[in-house]
Each structure stands twice: as structure tokens, then as C-alpha cells.
Amino acid sequence: MSAMAVGEKRVKSIDDSFQNASKVLVDIEGTTTSISFVKDTLFPYIRSNLQSYLKAHWNDAEFQQDLLLLKEQAKQDEADKVDGAVLIPEDNEDNTMEAVAKNVLWQMDLDRKTKALKQLQGHIMREGYKNGNLKGHVYSDVVPALKSWAHSGRRIYVYSSGSVEAQKLLFGHSEEGDLLDLFAGHFDTEVGPKVEPDSYVNIVKKLDCRSEDIVFLTDVPREAEAAQKAGLKAVIVVREGTELLTEEDKVSFPVIKSFHDFVFEASAKRKKMCTNDESPANGPISETSESSITEKNKAVKKTEEVSPESAGSGNTVSSSDCEMMDVSSNDAQVTDMEPDKTKIESQSTDDKTMAVEDSDTKESEKVELEPDDSEVCKTESSAPESKTVGAPDVEKESPKVCSENAEECDGKEVSVTSLTKLSAEVSKVDIDVKLNDSKADKKDSEAGETEVDIKGIPANEEETKVDAEETEAVGMSTKDKNVEVRISENDSRDGAELETVSGGSKNKSVGTISNCLESESGALETGSEEGKIDSCDEVAEVNAGDKKKFCDSRSASGDVKGDSCNEDANLEETEADTQNKKTDVNNTETEEKMETNTTEIENVKGINDEDVKDTEKNDRDTLAAEMEDEITEEMESSAKLGKNDVALKKKIDMESGGTANGREKGENTKPSEDLSVSEESGVTKSESEVATKTESDILNQTSEKQSDIDFSADASPENTDASPEESKTEGISEDPESTDKMLQDKMEDVSDAVKNEDSELLATSDNDTVKEDANANEDTKPLDSKNEGDEESKTAEDTAKENGLAFTTENGKGDVTNKCPDTEQNGEVTDKEQDVKIKKLSIDGSGNTSMTKDDVATPAVASGSS
Ligand SMILES: CSCCC(=O)C(=O)COP(=O)(O)O
Ligand SMILES: [Mg+2]
Hints:
Rossmann fold, Transcription Termination Factor Rho, Rna-binding Domain, Chain A, Domain 1, 7-stranded mixed β-sheet, 29 helices, 40% helix, 10% strand, elongated, binds the ligand CSCCC(=O)C(=O)COP(=O)(O)O, binds magnesium ion, hydrolase, HAD-SF_hydro_IA, magnesium
């Protein structure tokens, strides 16, 4: 436990570990809400309405349920010989009613937290909320803080002794309006008493996360202790009327006076992708929350002695560069919910309550968790979610990551349409995937690793370099043992797409690439089903929700079965063989094309002098020279594209400016369509098909098909309807063969350069946070490797560590965060961006990719290729 001295006192601070928490669990009374409201308003209302309520609802089925619980509790109290226990005799209605009233008042006098009492209280207060007599109190700092936490990617849950229904009534009818969207779920004493560690263990189970993923905020030290014992992080909130804290409490728990004192570093992803999102993680995000985050992050507060009277937060939350989204789901204890119920839940508290009552499952849900899709970035078109017992549906990771997920947030999910333009006009980057057996240690072995070398086409003839501070990442299905990734970029870098072709159609992955708007690093991001790699300066995340959503969309589109999308890939050696074959084919074809061009030139040069006059010889020589020049020009044109990239990035970043990626919710294209078209396009190939496909074939096909789809990363019309003509970039040869040949040559050179520089690059990389979930290997399998002995064979974690990447996995899904140098965050675009970037990626077995930030100085490939 970390504690810091302040004067002679010591208090526990909110250390970095709190930043790693992806969930926040809040108590109500004394934490979000004043004790006074509960004691002076709520409870008095219940007391004064008790008798009339009993009379009015005695025969209601709902009350009869309450009565049963009260009787059971009374019997238990009697058995436990609880002092002053008021029994409820099986008598006539009047006597029983009188006894019930006495029993309830007695329990309330003791502020008991029995389920029987809380359930009835909830029902009685419901009328007060509905008729407007009651308005739930919420401290003024709560809503902005919750929003900022949600905006930072955290999910917020409630755990109160008050029944779930009472919780919803309070927040749904609060003085600040309906706040229910802020919460991803609710827990009451159904999971156990708040002073019992087991209760928190139950919550951890229900959220399917690690205990340390949860920060619990409460005003009661005993509750904090219980949570801490269960492994949660606990923070004590000091409000008016809350318990006096002991010195031990202050050393054991961070203490805050306001929710503002607990600041989460905003996830880069959230900042990047949801800036304009009106419906953030758990609810709307206000400007206030945004600025709050910023200010708080800048602030460095002094830790002060905390007392109920003058409790200061004193706790500065140090930020971590990269936050990750949690990956969680509820377990079987989550109440079943009809598909349309979730919809109802997103409407109003009252409606929700009705929905619960109408359900055939439980009359009152004690644990209710909102679908995650609704939390981060709501999708307008999402199908009704259902909470099914046993189904991990509670927290559908979207991504938010933003929800991140692509299709919902600011248009981060882009269609593959742009590849039409991209492949036609640009700097083509081929990524060869090398699959390495992970042998280092068990963890690594389980995680598996795929290393990816990106062979780039030079941006210009200058010495090709990779900016050490620029990172680009490409993600793909880790199931894809053999993955061919093509990245094409056009002047709509924000939506550039990534396409992967695996050996087997099952593993096909069509991801997306999006610019890192905040870094100008031209980050590539995939929204593919297996991994989401964000090479942005600040963060890269692989979100299971993205995966699920992606899988779902694919499944819906008939692209692939959801199961096959989600399940671990069965990697077979034949896939690797296919990749190797394909490489061979490409190499051969490249050589052939080279020969063809050379022959053409030689044919011109080789015209028999005797057959021509001097003037004709001159013409011949001129023609040959012209041909050479033409080819050189083409080469240079290709190189210029790199410059175009830089200009485009600038342009996009400028356009996106303070509006994230410049996209509004709902502007995204339909992933399923994208995918299905991709499938049609032949991106997904059988092994044999892939083996015999040339790169240009596949690219051409992709270009043709993808032109049918909207490219939504950039909503501008000109970027969404890319015709082949429009796709052409000035200066680019329209002869695909000659261009291909030259590009192939360049690729070869770059590839060599990469290989030669690998060890050096790895050696110069620094170390950053590497965190791996204990469960990270659940869904992973060792990858067979076709590159045994490859010196680059490293674990994803190792590679990440060596290259300054935060490697993070969660819940077995694996998150990879890419910590990028601060300098990147300045968003400066330098001439370096004109250089070819050769990046190295490693993909672990669970679909996560970490990218090295290796920068490779490569030869001037443009000149070398000719
Ligand atoms: C909706 S909570 C009403 C207040 C209440 O009944 C209660 O017991 C509050 O307990 P908490 O665990 O929130 O401190
Ligand atoms: Mg409390």
C-alpha cells in the first residue's frame, strides 16, 4: 500500500494503480448522495407513507412478495435472537398489517439494510418519485465526475444497500435529471452485505473482471475494508455527516472530499474517438467534464491530512499514458432480460421498472447491468440487446473504445471502400507476417506472437527513415496465422483501411485504419474482429467488445459465423505455407516484370544500327532515354505519394481539429456491408486461391469491389464515392504493371533494410509498462511458426516492452497499448513523415498486436529499384 507523509500524518494516496482500474463502483448514501437526503427526506417519506401504502397495496402481488421477505426476515431475527426484533405473526390481515408496520419502523430505526426492508422501501418511495414529491439528491461534483470518468473509458456501477429499484428511482428522478445513463450497472445486497468481502467477490464475478479493475468509492470504512480485502481498490469519500475516520483508515485508503478529487486520465482512445460524442461511455459528456479532466490532470495537489471536517483529497491521480477499456461481461447471475427490455431501460426509470415487473424472470432485478454498447458511444442502429443469463452480454465492449468501436464513434470504423482509391493511388505498404513460435516462457508461449514486417514503398528518393517517434500499427486477427496485410492510404488518411488476407477464409480480417488525430503520426488502427490496434501516440487498445461487435456484424452480414469469429483460430501450418507460396509468387512476378521492362528498353536500344540511319539512331537513343525517364518518373511519382501522405495527414488533422475525427455519430458505414463486400472482393481467399493470387490481382480486385462501399472515415462526399478515375493520383503511372514492378522493387529493398536493421532497432528500444492480465492466456493458443529460428521471434510482451509499448491484456482478450512519446502528441508533422515508415508489429495469440516503434533507416529505395 502506498502512503505518503504529510507532516506527521500519513495518508494513502491514489497511486497509479488506480488509473488501471476500468470500473468504478459507487456507493450512494454518503457518497453520491447526502446522508441528509436519505435520513431527512427519503426515510421520513417512507415512514409517513408506510401505513397508507400497506393498506393500498396489501393485496398486490408485489407487496405480497415484500411481505414474504419481511416474514422470513422476522423469523430469522427471532432465530438469531436479535434484540428488540419485531415478529410478524400469521394472523388476520389487520394484525399482520400492524405488525408489519412496526417491524418496518423498527428496522428503519436501526437503519438496517435487510433485503426485506430495502425492497419495501423502494416500492414505497416509487410513488413519491413518480408523483414528483421526491427528487434524488446528488452532490454537485458527482455528475461531472461520473461523466469524465465515463469519458475516460471507465464504466460506472452502483453498489448500494438500497434496492436496485430504489437506486434507479433516485438517479432516474434526481435533482439533476435522469442520470441512469451514467451507470453501466447496479448492485444491491443481492450480492451480499456491503461489509462482506464476498459481496465484492461476487461483483467481480458478475463483471467478469479482475478485482483490481474496480475502484470502489464509499463513505463507510468497513465497506472499504471489505472491498479491499476482496482485492478491489477502495477510496473513502468524506461528506457531510459521514463517519469519522481513524488514522488507520487514512493510511489504508485514499480519502477524497469530492469526486473531482479522483481523476482518471482520459483514455487516449476516448479522447481521440469520442470527443464529439454526445453519449459517452456511460452517458453524455459535457464540456465541463472534458475540461475537468484536463485541469485535473495538470493539477498536482498536495496531500493533506484528512478528517471528516477538513478532508482533502490530497490525492493526485497520476496519469498513465495509456488507458484501456475493460473487457467484461456478467455471468449467470445477471438477471435475464428480454431483448426489448434493454431498450426500455434506456428510456426511463419508470419504464424500466415496468419492464422488470413484466418480465417473467425476476420481479426485481438486484443486479442490473447496462449493455456496454450504450455506455461509451451509443449506436443508433444497434439491435436490441438482451441480458441473458449466462451470456456475457452485460458489457459489450464496443470501444468505445469507443466504443470505440468503430462503427459508433465519430466514424472511426471505416469501410473498406477507400481502398479503391488507396490501392490505386498510393503508397502501398505490404506487410509480411512472420509467425513465430513463442517459446520464451509459458505466458508468451500461450500468447503466441506474430511478427509483422511492413515493407513500405518509399516516399521519396531521399534516404528513407522511420521517425522514431512515429508509430504506425497494424492489427489483424491473431487467429490469422498467415496474414497478408495491405495498407493503402489515400488522401483521406483518417479512413485509410487495412486489409488482411489470411490463409483461410475463416481468418480473413478486414480491419480499418484510422489516423491518430491527436498525434498526426498517421496511426493505423484496425477495427478488425481480433484485435484493435491503435498506434496512436497515446494508446492502442484491443478491445474484446470491438471484437464481439465486429464479429456480430460479420455474423449478421453472413460474412462469417460469429462463433468462428470469436473463437480461437485454428491455425494450421498450411496457412503459413500458403503465405510462403504467395510470397514466392510475388517475388517471381516481380522479377518477371522487371525483366519485361528491361527488355523493352533493351529492345529499343538494341535495334541494329545497320538498319537505321544516323538520325534514326538518334531517335532510337532518344526513345530509349525517354523510356528510362518515364520509368524514373513513375518511381518518383510513387515517392511523392509519401509527401502527399504528409500533406494529407496535415489536412485531415486540421480538418478534424477540435472535432475529433470530424465525424458525427451515425455517419459510419455499415460494417456488415463492408465486410460482405470485402468477402466478395476476394479479400478472403481459400488457401489455394491465396497461394496463386498475385498481389496486384488481389489489390485490383479489392479496388474494384470496395468502390461499391461508402468510405465513412471521412464523411466528405468526395471521399466516399471514389471512382477509379478519381482514384488516380497525379503523377502515378496508369500502367499498373510497370508501377507494380517498381513498387515491388522498392518493397524488396525496404524489406531488406528492415531485416538488416532489426536487431539494432530492438536493441535501442526503451522499456515501458508491460502489463498482462493473469487471464490473458485463456483465449490464446500458441502459434505455429514458419519462421523458426527467426531472431525476431519474440513474445508480444517482450516486443512491446522492448519498444516502448505498453502491453496490456485484460480478461484474456488482450489489450495492447502503445505508449508513444509525448512528442508525438504535439501533433507536429515533420519532414520525417515523408519518409517511408517501416514498422514492426507483433501480434500475440489472442488477437493483439503490439507494434514496435522501430525506425529503420533504409536506403533510398527509389533509386535502388531502378
Ligand atoms: C437508493 S439508496 C436509498 C438509501 C438507502 O436505502 C440506503 O440504505 C443507502 O445505503 P448505501 O449503501 O447507499 O449507503
Ligand atoms: Mg454509504
